[in-house]
Design goal:
alpha+beta, three-stranded antiparallel beta sheet, two-stranded antiparallel ribbon, 8 helices, 5 strands
Length: 235
Amino acid sequence: MKLQSYTVVRSNWLTRKIDSRAAAVSALVTLFTIFGALVCCGDTWGAESWMPATRGQVWGAHQWWRAWTTLFVHADAHHLLANCVLFFILGMFVFGYFGAVVFPFLALAVGGVANLYVLSGMRNETQLIGMSGVVFWLGGFWLLLYFLIDRRRSLGARAMRAGGVALGLFMPAEAFDPSISYQTHLTGFVLGLACALIFYVFNRDKIRRAEIKEVVVEAHNETETDPDSVTETRH
C-alpha cells in the first residue's frame, strides 16, 4: 500500500460573506455620480464652466481639479447609464471584499490621475468626460486580485476565467467610435492591475491566512487500479 498526499485550498478571502454594507455604499456613490451628471447637465451653480476638462484647462491653465470633477460629467443618459451599471456592480464587490479605502476613495483618486495622463496627450480643445476610466480601473483591480487569490483553481483555469470576464465586460460591442477615449479605458485598466498587485503584495499574509486548506491522502494499492482515498482537513 502506497500513500500519497497533496494540499488543496477549499475556501479563501473571496469565498467569505461579502460586507453587508457593500450594496448600499456602492448605490450611494453611484447616486452621487448621477447627481454630478445632473448638476452639469442643468448647469447648476455654473457647473458647465468648471466641471468638464480639456488639456488647455488642466495643463495650460493649471485647473487640476477638473481631472476629478470631469469624472462626474457625461454626454447623455446612455453614456451615464452604461457607466453606472458596471460602476455599481464592480464597486459593490471591491468595497465588499477590500474596503472603503479602495472603493470609492482610491478608485476615484486614481481615476483623476488617469485623466491627467490622458489629457496630456490630447488636443487643447477636446473635452475628456465620464467615469469609464474608473470603471476599467475597478475591473482591472478586481480581476487581477481574483487571479491572485482564488487558489482553489489552477493558474490556467484562473487565467481563462479572468480573461473571459474581461473580454465579455470590456470588449466594445460596436464598431470603433472616435468619440470614445479608448486610451482612458486602457489607462484605467492598466492602473487597476498595478494597484491590485501593490495591494496584494502588502496584504498577502492576511489574505493567505483566510484560506482553509485540506490535505488529501490517497492510498494506492499497487495491485489494484482504483485507489482508496481518505481526507484530512486542517484549518
